[in-house]
Each structure stands twice: as C-alpha cells, then as structure tokens.
Amino acid sequence: xxxxxxxxxxxxxxxxxxxxxxxxxxxxxxxxxxxxxxxxxxxxxxxxxxxxxxxxxxxxxxxxxxxxxxxxxxxxxxxxxxxxxxxxxxxxxxxxxxxxxxxxxxxxxxxxxxxxxxxxxxxxxxxxxxxxxxxxxxxxxxxxxxxxxxxxxxxxxxxxxxxxxxxxxxxxxxxxxxxxxxxxxxxxxxxxxxxxxxxxxxxxxxxxxxxxxxxxxxxxxxxxxxxxxxxxxxxxxxxxxxxxxxxxxxxxxxxxxxxxxxxxxxxxxxxxxxx
Amino acid sequence: xxxxxxxxxxxxxxxxxxxxxxxxxxxxxxxxxxxxxxxxxxxxxxxxxxxxxxxxxxxxxxxxxxxxxxxxxxxxxxxxxxxxxxxxxxxxxxxxxxxxxxxxxxxxxxxxxxxxxxxxxxxxxxxxxxxxxxxxxxxxxxxxxxxxxxxxxxxxxxxxxxxxxxxxxxxxxxxxxxxxxxxxxxxxxxxxxxxxxxxxxxxxxxxxxxxxxxxxxxxxxxxxxxxxxxxxxxxxxxxxxxxxxxxxxxxxxxxxxxxxxxxxxxxxxxxxxxx
Amino acid sequence: xxxxxxxxxxxxxxxxxxxxxxxxxxxxxxxxxxxxxxxxxxxxxxxxxxxxxxxxxxxxxxxxxxxxxxxxxxxxxxxxxxxxxxxxxxxxxxxxxxxxxxxxxxxxxxxxxxxxxxxxxxxxxxxxxxxxxxxxxxxxxxxxxxxxxxxxxxxxxxxxxxxxxxxxxxxxxxxxxxxxxxxxxxxxxxxxxxxxxxxxxxxxxxxxxxxxxxxxxxxxxxxxxxxxxxxxxxxxxxxxxxxxxxxxxxxxxxxxxxxxxxxxxxxxxxxxxxx
Amino acid sequence: xxxxxxxxxxxxxxxxxxxxxxxxxxxxxxxxxxxxxxxxxxxxxxxxxxxxxxxxxxxxxxxxxxxxxxxxxxxxxxxxxxxxxxxxxxxxxxxxxxxxxxxxxxxxxxxxxxxxxxxxxxxxxxxxxxxxxxxxxxxxxxxxxxxxxxxxxxxxxxxxxxxxxxxxxxxxxxxxxxxxxxxxxxxxxxxxxxxxxxxxxxxxxxxxxxxxxxxxxxxxxxxxxxxxxxxxxxxxxxxxxxxxxxxxxxxxxxxxxxxxxxxxxxxxxxxxxxx
Lengths: 275, 275, 275, 275
Known about the structure:
4 copies of one chain form a homotetramer. The longest helix of chain A has 10 residues, at 110-119. By secondary structure, chain A is mainly beta. The first copy, chain A, has helices at residues 38-43, 110-119, and strands spanning 23-36, 50-51, 57-69, 82-94, 97-107, 123-125, 127-130, 149-156, 159-171, 183-189, 202-215, 219-227, 240-263. Chain A is globular, with a radius of gyration of 19 Å. The first copy, chain A, is built from 2 helices and 13 strands. A 7-stranded mixed barrel of chain A has the order 1-3-4-5-10-11-13. The interface between C and D is large, with 82 and 81 residues.
C-alpha cells in the first residue's frame, strides 16, 4: 500500500516531497509596507474579494525560514529544513472585513514550493537573499539598533525582480499592519484532459490557519522597495507608488489546518496568454 | 479577472508557472533496462495495477530536455526551456494489458516539477547530469559509435542517488522495451483542512497521452546502474538485481491530453511516516 | 609529499581543483561579431597592446563546453566535465600584428574558473544558458538550417548581464573573424602582504597556445546582442554600437602550453576602487 | 589604465572578483575537535611543518559567513556578501611551535574561492548547510541552551562529503583548542608553459594575520563527525578515529596582511595523478 501525504507516495511513506502536517516554522522577516496602483491591486484580487478602502495597500516580505515536520527529522539535514522566500500581500475586503491575499511568491526549495501550493500560495522558484544580523559588533553585519541596515533581493530565471531595504530607527510599538489581516489564498490544481484545460480540478478560496505564533521584538525604520519587470512575470504591475515603513523581526508558527471559504468549482475560468 | 493555466494566475495570464498545453518536448535519452526485486516493484504499484509476468521488470531513464509551449516563447530565454530529468518506470498489468508506471522522478526546474504533477509524475527537484555527444571527434566527448560511453547521474539534497552508464555497441533494431508500454501515473493533490489530511483533493489513476512522437536512430550497448539510499528517499528499494541493455537516442513529442482511468476519490488513503 | 598541479595539493594528487594539462575541450559556440565604443575597447587593453585599426572591433561568445584531462576520468562523472561560458574578446595590435584579448568572462564551475585564471582568463562565476540543437525536427528545438534561432544569456549574482541571438541564414564560407587573431591574456595573482597589495605576485602578458583544433561546419546569420550594467561589473561599457553577423558551430581543441610575451613584474600597478 | 586588486582588472577597478583588502568577516561557527590517523595528518603537512606531539590532532569547521570590503558595498547586495564554508585544520609544529594548516576547504561563492587562494586556502566550490539558531523558542530551531542540536553538512559535485553535529551542553570556559594555533597555508599558483607544469609561479608557506577579532560566548557539547570519500577528493583520509568536543559560537575579524614564512620556489614539486 502506498503511503504519504504528498507525491511521491511510497511503501514506507518516507518519500513524500511534503510530509504530513503539522509544519513548524521560524524565520527572520523583512517587511516593507507600501501602496501599489489601486487598479493593479484590484486586478489581482480573486473572485469574492473587494477592494480595500485604503486603495493599493500592500506589503512586500522577505523571509529566511527554517522549518520541519513533527518528527523534526529535517533539522538533522539542514538543506531540507531551510529556505528563503519573497512575497507580496495586497489588502482587500471579504464580506466587509479586512483580509490580505498573496498574488505572487517565490521560494528556493522544492518542498516549500509544493507545501505552498497545498496552502494556496502560488509559489515559483527564485533566488532570495537577505542581509543577516550576527550577535557581534562587526563591519560585516548590521546591528539590531538604530542605523542597522537590512537589504533583501529576489531573482528568478536569472533576472533580478525585487529589492527592498530597511534602515532601523527604533523598536516598533505597533509592528507592521499591512500584512496583519487574515490571509486568503486560492488553492488551484489544473486539469490536463483535452477540452477541460479551463476546468481546474481544485479551485477554491481558502483562509490560512495557524497556531503557536511567537514573535521577537520588532524594529522599524525607513524603507525602500523596487519591483522589476521580466518575461513571464507580472510582479512589476504591483510596483510601489508610495513606500511606508519597514520592519525587521523574527517570527515562528505552526500550520496544520486550512478553511475553505468558497469553492470556485464550476465557475468560469479564463485561459492564459502565452509565457 | 485572473487568467492562466496554473498558479500564479494573473491579470494578463503571463505569470503561470505552467503555461497552457500543448507542451512540446525534445531531448536526449539514456535508457537502462533492468530488473528490481519483484516485491519492491509490486510495493510501488498504485491500486488497480497488477504485477507484470516478468517480475521486477524496470527501466531507469536520464533525459536532457528542451521544451516549450505553443508560443515557443521559452526558447527565447533558454533557462526557461531546458531541464534535466531522471526517472524509473516499473512494468505492470492493467486489466491484463502491459503498462508502466513511474514511482520516482526528479527534475531541475520548477516549471517541469509542477507540469509533471499535473500529469501525475511525482517530481522532486534534483541535480541531473549526462555525458553529451558533440558532432566532432574529440577526446572530450564520446562518439555515436561503437565504444562511445555515456554516463548519467542524479543527486538530490546534496546526495548522489543514481548513476548509470551505457557503452554503445551497435545501432539497435528494436530499441528499449521496458519503457514501451502505456504509462499510468497517479495525479494527487493533498488537502490541508484539519481532519482531512488523508483525503486528497485529487487522487486518480491516469493514462498519459501524447502525439507527434519522433525518434532518432537508437544506439544500444552494455549498461550499468546503481541506485543509492538517502533520508527521505525510497528509490534504493528499486535497485537492480540484474541489468540489461542500455540505449541512447533523441526523442520528441507533444502533450496536451490525459485520460482518467480510475478515480480513487473516497478510497481509503494511508498516512505517511515522518521524513 | 604533496602532489598535484593546483591547490589543493594532496598525498595522492587526486584532490587538485585543476588536474595537470593537457586539457581537452569540445563545445557548441554562439559567436556574435560587433563593435563597441572605441574608447571603451582601448580602456580595457593591457599594457603593450595598441588599438586595432578597425576601432571597437569585438566579439561576444557563448559556449556550452565538455572538457577533461588526459585520463578522461571527468567524463565518468559528467558534473565534473561540463560547464558553460560567456566572454567578450576585443581586437588590438601587438607589435603591429592583429591580436585579441579577453577583458571579461564568466563560467559556471569552479574547475573552469581556476583553469581559466591559470591561462590568464579573468573568470568569475555566472549562469549561462544557450538554446540547444537536437538532431530531430521539433517545435521545441531549432534546426541547423535557415531560420533556426539560437539564444544565449548570461547572469551573475542574480542579474542578467548579457543576451545574444543568432538566426541562421546559411552555411558560412569564412566563419567568424573578430575572434580569429591570436589571444593575449594577462596572468595575474595578487599579493596580500601589507604594503604590497599593489605588487601582484604574478603579472604577465601571455599568448594562448592550443593544438588538435577541430571545427564543424559553421552556420551564420543575423545577430542581436545586449550587455547590461550591474554593480561590480564593467561589462556594459563594451556594449555594442553596431552588431555584425552571428555564427553557430561546434569546436574542439587541446591546451597544454602558454607563452609569456611580457612580464609586467615591477611595473606600476593601479589600485582598484571599491566593489 | 587597468585597475583592481584581482582579475578581472578594469578601467574603473570595480570588476575585480576580489576587491582590495581589508576584508571584514563575521560568521556562525560549528567546530568539531577530533583526531585523524597520524600518518594521514603527516601526509598533508606542507614542507617545513613537523608532526604535532598529539598525533592526528585536527578540527572540522562549518562556518556561515557574511563579509565585505572596506566600502561595505557588498552588504547592499547580500548575494555578494554571504557564503558558507567547511574546512579541516590539522595540527603541526613549525620550528617547534604549535601551528595549524588547512589541507582542504570548500566555499559556495566565487569571490570567497579566489580570496581564499590569495591567502593560501585551497578552496573548491561546495554546498554547505548548517542548522540555524533563531532568537525565539520554536520546534523549528534549536536554542542556544543545553540540548540545542546543530548539524553541518558539506557536498561537492553532488556528493555528500562531510557531516558533523554538536549537541550543546554548557557554556564553554576554554573554547576550542585544536584550531587555536597560528594558521600556516600554502600560496600556490600554477604555470602552464610547456615543460614547466611542475614549477609553480607562486609557491610559498604563509602565516595568516588578522586583527579586530571578536567572539561571542561559546557553547560546547558532544560532537559527531563523518567524512566520506569521493572521486577527486582525499578528504576521507582525514576521517576521525576519535571525536572530541564540539563548539558553537559567532566570530568576526578583519584580514589585510599575510606573512611569507618560506618560499618554496625552486624546490622540487611532484606532479599529480589523474582526477
């Protein structure tokens, strides 16, 4: 009998690219609050979400993650427990309540890519780098103190797509707010049968659930953000027209649940253009 | 309106990791026919497939691919059109007819990984390398002639998992047979809602369909194959107990269809062990 | 006793990053002839070379290489025998005779990087991709025939630095000429002792030597070339002001010698700016 | 005029793979003290070093580095400021005084590779991973506290070469000692002129110099270490016959000097075997 939470399913169930939940995460965050063109934000909202009253409200996040499943076996082999991530969230309303949704996201490991698809994160592979803090005064690393400067970059397919920076000014009393509302994503898995390419096998709006959330002290300061265009990418349509504050902190949580908010099955689905 | 065949779906539909079918492929193949432990092969058969009368019959394939969608736009950016692949197929019977199925497969690009999942290929990322032939006599490259020696290797997560070689002896009259029968895969997409981790959203046995198949002259010769064990992998359970001939050729085809043979929805599904 | 042609030198001499010469090479080439700003070309000429009478004459080359040392052992492990390369050569005169010199070059493997430094190629690591030809008619690969279109790209540190294309028109009678004259490079190895950072331990103008050169039929056609700027790079100063023909062919040779043309030891050397 | 500390030297001096010293470093260390076969250690000593009275005394080090030159410009582009490293040091005597020397070392960036060669570190490219500590209690990351478990791994050319672990027990009063004595390396740069392949252009024993050294509190505990064999590697000859304590800490320093202890020029040099 084949066992396992994801493909490849195997006799012992040890081959799954994504092991069964729960999944534990901890990571260093760089969050940059900004506003994109309101029309561009509206254009990436999945069906059922309405524009947010603060038009174009968005955030860009760089994260340096370590994660594992319940056994913690991945921590014995660090290459299987670490990945870096960049994503954008835009703000919207669901039935009048503030929510966020993630139109674009990149990670640098396969397990994180598919674990993301299972949660409705539309992940692609990218190359993400972030300035690191070390607990030692050094010319080679910024302090967690006023003046400490942190930079994040994203590339995919050999092209630089995003660059952000945060120069710390003070400990933050409130922390970031643009990425605070509940996160709604779209789970989607295509169909290949001829004539049904536009009728995905899975297509549903879902609300992320998590537990055991923990956060370090948060530093905030002035931020910069650039999003660049590339073939096969529409990220640059969400480029900032105004940039707010940036934040730097460490965050951890556990995921083993998801709530389906709306099943799009049977809805009309638009085909895509070429790559 | 969001457009696109796969996530991420976007206003213009240009962001999809996998563009809409058809998908055109051409690649250099190294095929090694072999026999694994019959019990090990039986253990990886999906429900509905029965053991083949030639017990343990299998093949290992290394492929150096170039592919594109109908627009051919990927060929303007070679990093988005090329990938390498290693996979094993085992032989079985479906309703008494010979078929093959692919229990394990690795590729080195994200678009190929997800395009594989859509077809039921249980792809993970790996690092695949193959000796190349150049149309020039050289100490640095084997000839397509008796004595020409081609090697393929697979690694994943920094561990070498497979190594195969073929030393050409003659043009083949018949070509490889262990990978010849129709290919049956399992499309599978997990569910994350609490309490339903064992009830995948998609779970079906599918038969691959392709068209416009073309093949070069085929060379054959003596072959070697080693499969190694690693944490999070069960590939080594399919290690050879006997190795047959090896083959080297170029092959191309087009994919834009898939046939569902059996829907496993509602079947009992076994959870996996830890990673 | 420590043995080996290069570091790391070891008891058995098997650890050397670069094994002892001779080194055999075979590879697919994309050559794009062009002209850069004459002043920019003059600015990259090493001492002793004078501007060419055809000002700004240059070529950009993408190469998909396979190489090995005399034992051929690397071919048993393809990851250690393959690499891709992008470089520019500019034309100049040495004592009135036409020569070329390579100011910038990128490869994607460590052995190729250091093997290049030994020959005076100023290699850095990059990510190079080239459209491949397969000996089969396919939508997924260009033919070696009129209309066949080949693209090459270079990135380094996650930034796209170069893109070139050649659309084949005919078999070439003459082949490329901008990269034809003898190649002069600068071997250079820094010193770290305080006060002597500007007095390199090795600093000499060398002429490349090779043997057993072989070449396939050459296709030529219309070409495009773009060179982009990036921090820590000056490649874009050699961007084309006019692009000539492009060429596509396979070439092989063997290297085990080098001629010192001029020893710069004792010459004044200018320090660099920051990165 | 061409400028720059290393190749490629360029009009503005911004292209150098290695910018001019000083170089500032800060990184997280995992140090595992052990003893290898005394004969194996003696076999890797460069001329002039004698065996240490504690035969086979060695250490393996995994380091997660961030570094920059005086301008700090690399910190604005994290991909150019970060790298990971694995190396072994063995203990010896120079004129009766305890010293260490590094026979084998791997890094994952080109600038670190060549910057190492300039200092006499025999660097190759590898893939190095280390468990990270985050300042937050989490199932996904070890604490800097008794029971915290840190793992390091090294692979090169798709093969796993080393794995080490340290399980923290207590803050260390003394810190590691096997890597404490002054570090002696061999600067070496080959010659390619025919007939002189065995007469390197640079070949000298050097003593590392550094300044502005800083170190965090040091944790120590039980350690494990495995070194595996691979083609083209002799690391496994230094595999442990006994493993001592392991240590985990953060360390920073600055390098801009080097002392030549002995010039091997003119000494007989042994050629290497094949790869």
